[in-house]
Amino acid sequence: MMAEPLSSTASLLLVVVVLLLLLSPRPAASLSAYEALKQFNFPVGLLPKGVTGYELDRDTGKFRAFLNGSCDFSLEGSYQLKYKSAIGGYISENRMTGLSGVSVKVLFLWLNIVEVTRVDDELEFSVGIASASFEIDNFYESPQCGCGFDCLNKVRLRHSSSFSSN
Question: Is 103 exposed, middle or buried, given 0-12, 13-18 or 19+ CB atoms closer than 10 A?
Answer without folding.
Answer: buried
